[in-house]
Recover the amino acids of this structure.
Protein backbone atom coordinates (compact mmCIF):
# COMPACT_ATOMS: atom_id res chain seq x y z
CA UNK A 1 0.00 0.00 0.00
CA UNK A 2 1.43 3.39 -1.01
CA UNK A 3 1.46 6.39 1.40
CA UNK A 4 -1.28 7.82 -0.79
CA UNK A 5 -4.28 5.53 -1.09
CA UNK A 6 -5.74 5.42 -4.60
CA UNK A 7 -9.52 5.19 -4.60
CA UNK A 8 -11.83 3.88 -7.26
CA UNK A 9 -15.40 5.23 -7.22
CA UNK A 10 -18.09 2.84 -8.37
CA UNK A 11 -21.19 4.73 -9.56
CA UNK A 12 -21.77 8.39 -10.36
CA UNK A 13 -24.73 9.32 -8.17
CA UNK A 14 -25.40 11.72 -5.36
CA UNK A 15 -23.48 9.95 -2.60
CA UNK A 16 -20.44 9.11 -4.74
CA UNK A 17 -20.24 12.84 -5.61
CA UNK A 18 -20.21 13.81 -1.92
CA UNK A 19 -17.74 11.07 -1.01
CA UNK A 20 -15.42 12.11 -3.85
CA UNK A 21 -15.57 15.75 -2.75
CA UNK A 22 -14.62 14.68 0.77
CA UNK A 23 -11.77 12.48 -0.47
CA UNK A 24 -10.32 15.57 -2.12
CA UNK A 25 -9.98 17.10 1.37
CA UNK A 26 -7.61 14.31 2.41
CA UNK A 27 -3.93 14.74 1.46
CA UNK A 28 -3.29 11.00 1.71
CA UNK A 29 -6.14 10.07 -0.65
CA UNK A 30 -6.16 10.18 -4.42
CA UNK A 31 -9.34 9.66 -6.42
CA UNK A 32 -7.68 7.74 -9.22
CA UNK A 33 -10.63 6.31 -11.13
CA UNK A 34 -14.39 6.28 -11.53
CA UNK A 35 -16.56 3.61 -13.10
CA UNK A 36 -20.07 4.02 -14.47
CA UNK A 37 -22.43 1.94 -16.58
CA UNK A 38 -22.02 4.75 -19.11
CA UNK A 39 -18.73 6.10 -20.51
CA UNK A 40 -20.28 9.56 -20.88
CA UNK A 41 -21.37 9.67 -17.23
CA UNK A 42 -17.94 8.45 -16.10
CA UNK A 43 -16.25 11.18 -18.11
CA UNK A 44 -18.62 13.91 -16.92
CA UNK A 45 -18.09 12.81 -13.30
CA UNK A 46 -14.33 12.61 -13.86
CA UNK A 47 -14.20 16.09 -15.39
CA UNK A 48 -16.27 17.57 -12.56
CA UNK A 49 -14.10 15.96 -9.88
CA UNK A 50 -10.63 15.92 -11.39
CA UNK A 51 -10.42 12.13 -11.73
CA UNK A 52 -7.77 10.95 -14.23
CA UNK A 53 -9.20 7.54 -15.19
CA UNK A 54 -12.83 7.25 -16.29
CA UNK A 55 -14.27 3.84 -17.14
CA UNK A 56 -17.51 3.03 -18.94
CA UNK A 57 -18.12 -0.14 -16.94
CA UNK A 58 -17.73 -1.26 -13.34
CA UNK A 59 -15.68 -4.24 -14.54
CA UNK A 60 -13.09 -1.93 -16.13
CA UNK A 61 -12.76 0.07 -12.91
CA UNK A 62 -12.34 -3.05 -10.84
CA UNK A 63 -9.69 -4.39 -13.24
CA UNK A 64 -7.47 -1.31 -12.85
CA UNK A 65 -4.41 -2.72 -11.03
CA UNK A 66 -3.52 0.70 -9.58
CA UNK A 67 -6.77 1.09 -7.64
CA UNK A 68 -6.13 0.26 -3.97
CA UNK A 69 -9.71 0.33 -2.67
CA UNK A 70 -13.19 0.73 -4.11
CA UNK A 71 -16.10 2.75 -2.77
CA UNK A 72 -19.39 1.13 -3.82
CA UNK A 73 -22.13 3.79 -3.99
CA UNK A 74 -24.77 2.19 -6.20
CA UNK A 75 -28.43 1.60 -5.33
CA UNK A 76 -29.43 -0.77 -2.50
CA UNK A 77 -30.19 -3.86 -4.62
CA UNK A 78 -26.81 -3.59 -6.39
CA UNK A 79 -24.53 -3.47 -3.32
CA UNK A 80 -24.31 -7.24 -3.03
CA UNK A 81 -23.35 -7.98 -6.65
CA UNK A 82 -21.08 -4.95 -7.02
CA UNK A 83 -19.19 -5.65 -3.80
CA UNK A 84 -18.92 -9.33 -4.67
CA UNK A 85 -17.44 -8.45 -8.05
CA UNK A 86 -14.83 -6.21 -6.38
CA UNK A 87 -13.86 -8.83 -3.80
CA UNK A 88 -13.60 -11.56 -6.42
CA UNK A 89 -11.18 -9.32 -8.30
CA UNK A 90 -9.09 -8.90 -5.15
CA UNK A 91 -10.13 -5.32 -4.29
CA UNK A 92 -10.82 -4.07 -0.74
CA UNK A 93 -14.24 -2.40 -0.46
CA UNK A 94 -16.05 0.31 1.45
CA UNK A 95 -19.73 -0.34 0.64
CA UNK A 96 -22.59 2.11 1.17
CA UNK A 97 -25.37 1.36 3.61
CA UNK A 98 -27.48 -0.72 3.64
CA UNK A 99 -24.56 -3.11 3.16
CA UNK A 100 -26.88 -5.66 1.51
CA UNK A 101 -30.63 -6.29 1.31
CA UNK A 102 -30.59 -9.17 3.78
CA UNK A 103 -28.42 -11.20 6.10
CA UNK A 104 -27.87 -14.07 3.66
CA UNK A 105 -26.23 -11.70 1.17
CA UNK A 106 -24.20 -10.02 3.93
CA UNK A 107 -22.95 -13.34 5.27
CA UNK A 108 -21.81 -14.38 1.79
CA UNK A 109 -19.82 -11.17 1.29
CA UNK A 110 -18.29 -11.42 4.76
CA UNK A 111 -17.24 -15.02 4.11
CA UNK A 112 -15.75 -14.03 0.77
CA UNK A 113 -13.77 -11.11 2.23
CA UNK A 114 -12.51 -13.25 5.11
CA UNK A 115 -11.54 -16.14 2.80
CA UNK A 116 -9.60 -13.77 0.57
CA UNK A 117 -8.22 -11.72 3.48
CA UNK A 118 -9.55 -8.52 1.94
CA UNK A 119 -10.69 -5.41 3.77
CA UNK A 120 -14.45 -4.89 3.78
CA UNK A 121 -16.56 -2.35 5.66
CA UNK A 122 -20.08 -0.95 5.62
CA UNK A 123 -19.95 2.83 5.11
CA UNK A 124 -21.67 3.77 8.37
CA UNK A 125 -19.97 7.18 8.34
CA UNK A 126 -21.88 8.54 11.35
CA UNK A 127 -19.70 6.57 13.77
CA UNK A 128 -16.61 8.38 12.55
CA UNK A 129 -17.67 12.04 12.83
CA UNK A 130 -15.80 13.86 15.63
CA UNK A 131 -18.90 14.48 17.81
CA UNK A 132 -19.77 10.77 17.75
CA UNK A 133 -16.16 9.83 18.53
CA UNK A 134 -16.34 12.10 21.60
CA UNK A 135 -19.68 10.57 22.61
CA UNK A 136 -18.08 7.12 22.41
CA UNK A 137 -15.10 8.30 24.46
CA UNK A 138 -17.40 9.64 27.19
CA UNK A 139 -19.40 6.40 27.26
CA UNK A 140 -16.22 4.33 27.50
CA UNK A 141 -15.09 6.57 30.40
CA UNK A 142 -18.43 5.86 32.14
CA UNK A 143 -19.20 9.61 32.18
CA UNK A 144 -22.99 9.19 32.40
CA UNK A 145 -23.10 5.84 34.26
CA UNK A 146 -24.50 2.64 32.77
CA UNK A 147 -26.61 3.47 29.70
CA UNK A 148 -30.25 2.56 30.21
CA UNK A 149 -31.96 4.48 27.43
CA UNK A 150 -31.20 5.37 23.79
CA UNK A 151 -33.52 7.36 21.57
CA UNK A 152 -32.82 8.33 17.97
CA UNK A 153 -34.87 9.08 14.91
CA UNK A 154 -34.37 9.77 11.23
CA UNK A 155 -37.70 11.32 10.23
CA UNK A 156 -37.65 13.74 7.30
CA UNK A 157 -40.79 14.68 5.39
CA UNK A 158 -40.57 14.00 1.67
CA UNK A 159 -43.27 14.45 -0.96
CA UNK A 160 -44.35 11.07 -2.26
CA UNK A 161 -42.55 10.22 -5.50
CA UNK A 162 -42.92 6.63 -6.72
CA UNK A 163 -39.75 7.02 -8.80
CA UNK A 164 -37.51 8.15 -5.97
CA UNK A 165 -35.36 5.34 -4.53
CA UNK A 166 -36.84 5.97 -1.07
CA UNK A 167 -40.35 4.97 -2.22
CA UNK A 168 -39.46 2.65 -5.07
CA UNK A 169 -40.03 -1.04 -4.39
CA UNK A 170 -37.69 -2.12 -7.23
CA UNK A 171 -34.88 -0.03 -5.67
CA UNK A 172 -35.45 -1.85 -2.35
CA UNK A 173 -36.81 1.40 -1.01
CA UNK A 174 -38.49 2.09 2.29
CA UNK A 175 -37.36 4.31 5.11
CA UNK A 176 -35.81 1.60 7.27
CA UNK A 177 -33.12 0.55 4.79
CA UNK A 178 -32.53 4.16 3.82
CA UNK A 179 -32.90 6.13 7.08
CA UNK A 180 -33.90 3.83 9.95
CA UNK A 181 -30.65 1.93 9.58
CA UNK A 182 -28.90 4.93 11.20
CA UNK A 183 -30.78 4.85 14.54
CA UNK A 184 -30.76 1.02 14.50
CA UNK A 185 -27.00 1.04 13.98
CA UNK A 186 -26.60 3.74 16.65
CA UNK A 187 -28.48 1.63 19.21
CA UNK A 188 -26.33 -1.38 18.30
CA UNK A 189 -23.17 0.72 18.67
CA UNK A 190 -24.13 1.94 22.13
CA UNK A 191 -25.94 -1.10 23.58
CA UNK A 192 -24.82 -4.12 21.53
CA UNK A 193 -27.05 -7.10 20.81
CA UNK A 194 -30.66 -6.70 21.91
CA UNK A 195 -32.69 -9.50 23.50
CA UNK A 196 -36.10 -8.43 22.29
CA UNK A 197 -37.38 -6.42 19.32
CA UNK A 198 -40.75 -4.77 18.79
CA UNK A 199 -41.48 -3.15 15.47
CA UNK A 200 -44.28 -1.78 13.34
CA UNK A 201 -44.49 0.03 10.01
CA UNK A 202 -46.80 2.01 7.77
CA UNK A 203 -46.45 0.56 4.28
CA UNK A 204 -47.35 2.99 1.49
CA UNK A 205 -48.87 2.51 -1.95
CA UNK A 206 -45.61 1.17 -3.45
CA UNK A 207 -45.49 -1.50 -0.73
CA UNK A 208 -42.46 -0.19 1.16
CA UNK A 209 -42.35 1.35 4.64
CA UNK A 210 -42.95 5.09 4.69
CA UNK A 211 -42.72 5.11 8.48
CA UNK A 212 -41.34 2.45 10.78
CA UNK A 213 -40.45 2.15 14.45
CA UNK A 214 -38.14 -0.20 16.33
CA UNK A 215 -37.97 -0.73 20.10
CA UNK A 216 -35.25 -2.94 21.50
CA UNK A 217 -34.68 -4.33 24.99
CA UNK A 218 -31.25 -5.46 26.17
CA UNK A 219 -30.08 -8.02 28.75
CA UNK A 220 -29.25 -5.31 31.32
CA UNK A 221 -32.77 -3.86 31.03
CA UNK A 222 -31.76 -0.96 28.77
CA UNK A 223 -34.19 0.17 26.08
CA UNK A 224 -33.63 1.74 22.66
CA UNK A 225 -36.47 3.58 20.90
CA UNK A 226 -35.83 4.37 17.25
CA UNK A 227 -37.89 5.41 14.24
CA UNK A 228 -37.72 6.64 10.67
CA UNK A 229 -40.25 8.39 8.47
CA UNK A 230 -40.74 10.08 5.14
CA UNK A 231 -44.19 11.33 6.18
CA UNK A 232 -43.15 13.64 9.02
CA UNK A 233 -40.10 15.49 10.26
CA UNK A 234 -38.72 14.54 13.65
CA UNK A 235 -36.36 16.19 16.12
CA UNK A 236 -33.43 14.47 14.36
CA UNK A 237 -31.46 14.00 17.56
CA UNK A 238 -29.77 11.02 19.17
CA UNK A 239 -29.92 10.72 22.94
CA UNK A 240 -28.00 8.37 25.25
CA UNK A 241 -29.02 8.43 28.91
CA UNK A 242 -27.59 6.85 32.04
CA UNK A 243 -27.91 7.26 35.79
CA UNK A 244 -25.56 10.27 36.01
CA UNK A 245 -26.65 12.24 32.94
CA UNK A 246 -27.24 12.18 29.23
CA UNK A 247 -25.50 12.95 25.94
CA UNK A 248 -27.26 14.33 22.88
CA UNK A 249 -25.95 14.57 19.33
CA UNK A 250 -27.82 17.64 18.13
CA UNK A 251 -29.74 18.00 14.87
CA UNK A 252 -29.03 16.50 12.43
CA UNK A 253 -27.44 13.90 14.65
CA UNK A 254 -25.98 11.61 11.96
CA UNK A 255 -23.52 14.32 10.93
CA UNK A 256 -23.78 16.49 14.00
CA UNK A 257 -21.28 19.22 14.80
CA UNK A 258 -22.63 19.64 18.35
CA UNK A 259 -22.61 17.31 21.34
CA UNK A 260 -24.69 18.36 24.34
CA UNK A 261 -23.38 17.00 27.65
CA UNK A 262 -26.10 17.15 30.28
CA UNK A 263 -24.99 15.91 33.70
CA UNK A 264 -27.72 15.62 36.33
CA UNK A 265 -28.11 18.84 38.32
CA UNK A 266 -25.71 20.82 36.14
CA UNK A 267 -26.31 23.18 33.19
CA UNK A 268 -25.97 21.58 29.74
CA UNK A 269 -22.63 22.07 28.04
CA UNK A 270 -22.72 22.13 24.22
CA UNK A 271 -19.36 21.24 22.68
CA UNK A 272 -18.75 22.15 19.01
CA UNK A 273 -17.03 19.78 16.60
CA UNK A 274 -16.69 21.74 13.37
CA UNK A 275 -15.40 20.13 10.20
CA UNK A 276 -15.17 20.84 6.51
CA UNK A 277 -17.05 18.84 3.90
CA UNK A 278 -19.99 16.44 4.08
CA UNK A 279 -18.75 14.36 7.02
CA UNK A 280 -17.74 11.38 4.88
CA UNK A 281 -13.98 11.90 5.03
CA UNK A 282 -13.68 10.51 8.56
CA UNK A 283 -14.77 7.02 7.50
CA UNK A 284 -12.46 7.30 4.48
CA UNK A 285 -9.50 8.15 6.74
CA UNK A 286 -10.37 5.19 8.94
CA UNK A 287 -10.43 2.85 5.93
CA UNK A 288 -7.00 4.11 4.84
CA UNK A 289 -5.59 3.62 8.36
CA UNK A 290 -6.93 0.06 8.37
CA UNK A 291 -5.45 -0.68 4.95
CA UNK A 292 -2.03 0.71 5.91
CA UNK A 293 -2.09 -1.33 9.13
CA UNK A 294 -2.87 -4.47 7.10
CA UNK A 295 -6.28 -4.89 8.75
CA UNK A 296 -9.05 -6.68 6.90
CA UNK A 297 -11.79 -5.39 9.16
CA UNK A 298 -12.67 -2.26 11.09
CA UNK A 299 -12.99 -2.41 14.87
CA UNK A 300 -15.36 0.60 14.76
CA UNK A 301 -17.74 -0.92 12.21
CA UNK A 302 -17.00 -4.66 12.45
CA UNK A 303 -18.53 -7.05 9.94
CA UNK A 304 -20.23 -9.15 12.62
CA UNK A 305 -22.03 -6.02 13.77
CA UNK A 306 -23.02 -5.12 10.21
CA UNK A 307 -24.51 -8.62 10.00
CA UNK A 308 -26.34 -8.15 13.31
CA UNK A 309 -27.88 -4.88 12.10
CA UNK A 310 -29.06 -6.49 8.87
CA UNK A 311 -30.53 -9.40 10.82
CA UNK A 312 -32.44 -6.86 12.92
CA UNK A 313 -33.81 -5.25 9.76
CA UNK A 314 -34.67 -8.69 8.32
CA UNK A 315 -36.62 -9.43 11.52
CA UNK A 316 -38.50 -6.12 11.20
CA UNK A 317 -39.41 -6.77 7.56
CA UNK A 318 -40.51 -10.32 8.38
CA UNK A 319 -42.99 -8.89 10.88
CA UNK A 320 -44.35 -6.36 8.36
CA UNK A 321 -44.42 -8.84 5.47
CA UNK A 322 -42.09 -6.75 3.28
CA UNK A 323 -40.14 -8.98 0.87
CA UNK A 324 -37.92 -7.40 -1.78
CA UNK A 325 -37.70 -8.45 -5.41
CA UNK A 326 -35.68 -11.64 -5.84
CA UNK A 327 -35.76 -12.59 -2.15
N1 LIG B 1 -24.09 7.72 3.35
C1 LIG B 1 -25.06 8.54 3.05
O1 LIG B 1 -25.24 9.60 3.64
C2 LIG B 1 -25.96 8.21 1.96
C3 LIG B 1 -26.74 9.21 1.45
C4 LIG B 1 -27.51 8.92 0.38
C5 LIG B 1 -27.52 7.64 -0.14
N2 LIG B 1 -26.77 6.67 0.40
C6 LIG B 1 -26.78 5.31 -0.17
O2 LIG B 1 -26.02 5.37 -1.36
C7 LIG B 1 -26.62 4.59 -2.37
C8 LIG B 1 -26.86 5.44 -3.61
O3 LIG B 1 -27.72 6.51 -3.30
P1 LIG B 1 -27.73 7.85 -4.19
O4 LIG B 1 -28.61 8.81 -3.50
O5 LIG B 1 -26.33 8.26 -4.45
O6 LIG B 1 -28.43 7.30 -5.51
P2 LIG B 1 -28.29 7.88 -7.01
O7 LIG B 1 -27.96 9.33 -6.97
O8 LIG B 1 -29.51 7.44 -7.72
O9 LIG B 1 -27.03 7.12 -7.60
C9 LIG B 1 -26.99 5.72 -7.73
C10 LIG B 1 -25.92 5.34 -8.73
O10 LIG B 1 -25.93 3.94 -8.84
C11 LIG B 1 -25.61 3.55 -10.15
N3 LIG B 1 -26.57 2.54 -10.61
C12 LIG B 1 -26.29 1.24 -10.82
N4 LIG B 1 -27.35 0.56 -11.24
C13 LIG B 1 -28.36 1.46 -11.30
C14 LIG B 1 -29.72 1.38 -11.69
N5 LIG B 1 -30.27 0.21 -12.10
N6 LIG B 1 -30.48 2.49 -11.64
C15 LIG B 1 -29.96 3.66 -11.22
N7 LIG B 1 -28.66 3.79 -10.84
C16 LIG B 1 -27.87 2.70 -10.89
C17 LIG B 1 -25.65 4.79 -11.01
O11 LIG B 1 -24.32 5.09 -11.43
P3 LIG B 1 -23.91 4.92 -12.99
O12 LIG B 1 -25.11 5.37 -13.77
O13 LIG B 1 -22.77 5.83 -13.10
O14 LIG B 1 -23.57 3.50 -13.21
C18 LIG B 1 -26.18 5.88 -10.12
O15 LIG B 1 -25.57 7.09 -10.34
C19 LIG B 1 -27.89 4.00 -1.77
O16 LIG B 1 -27.64 2.68 -1.37
C20 LIG B 1 -28.16 4.86 -0.54
O17 LIG B 1 -28.74 4.13 0.53
C21 LIG B 1 -25.98 6.93 1.42
Amino acid sequence: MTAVTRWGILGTGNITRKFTEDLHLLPDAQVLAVGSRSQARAEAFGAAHDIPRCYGSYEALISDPDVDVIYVGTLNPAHYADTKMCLEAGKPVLCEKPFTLNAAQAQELINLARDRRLFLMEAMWTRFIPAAVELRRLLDADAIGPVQYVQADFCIYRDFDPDHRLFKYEAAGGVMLDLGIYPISFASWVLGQHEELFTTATLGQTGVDEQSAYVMRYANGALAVAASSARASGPLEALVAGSKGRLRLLEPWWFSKHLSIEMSGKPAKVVKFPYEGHGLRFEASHVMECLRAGKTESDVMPLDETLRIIKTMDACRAQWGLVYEGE
Remarks:
- Residues 11-15, 36-38, 41, 73-76, 78, 96-97, 123, 125, 165, 178 surround NAP (CB under 6 Å).
- DSSP finds nine helices and 14 strands in the chain.
